[in-house]
Specification:
- The protein is mostly helical.
- 72% of the residues lie in helices and 0% in strands.
- The chain has seven helices and no strands.
- The chain is extended and about 90 Å long.
- It starts with a helix and ends in an 11-residue tail after the last helix.
Length: 265
Amino acid sequence: MVFQLLEKQAETHFRDQFQLEKLSFLQNYTCLDRQALEKFVQVLMEAWEKGVNPEGNSTNPSNWDFSNSFFFAGTVVTTIGYGNLSPSTVPGQIFCVFYALFGVPLNLAFLNQLGKGLNAHLLTLERWVQKPGRAQVVQTLAVAIFLSTGTLLFLVFPPLVFSYVEGWSYGEGFYFTFITLSTIGFGDYVVGTNPNKHYIPVYRSLTAIWIVFGLAWLALVFNVGADLMEKFLQLKWHKSDLSLAEGATTKLEDEPEQPRIHIPS
């Protein structure tokens, strides 16, 4: 319901605007009729679905050079799946199935080991701050620094880079960052796809490496958050049970003792 309230009006506005643009195009180019325009729009949509950007010309960089292929392979094993690019040939589709069949479990095992390493550092920090004599302020500050460092590296600084390279706003860069690292991957924002920009060859490869380490970090944050929420709920339920037990005990104590009737034998 919330998404409906937020997005439906904008969708209607964009749809009406698109129809007006088509009418204006037909009025400016009278040699075309509506049927020819609709056919051309269909060609553009089919090209986009095949991963071909209709902007620019045939000199646009390939979607399947080494850097883009490396980035695509990373989105497969991490199960992000932006949807803007996919194999179009039958051999490519078959290989993608087998690659994902073996690559996804291996990536999960790698992320698991990486998460264990991060968790070990977190436990070491936790044992250090829990030593006797440590001030509560120092303990809180140490944990905050540990969490803030990862947040800066994976959630705060990357949107600055993406907004600079891609021409996005910071909000759009942060949106892409979180949607990517949470493996939601809508595909509405993807790095390295603007044909009007010249990217360095390793741009998308470095992004893929950032994604792998960012996934491990965000998974650790989600696990810590889930543990804290579970402990909070258990504490709340425990207090509720204690309150019910105390209420029942008080009720029994307040009830007057019933007189006993002795029946002679």
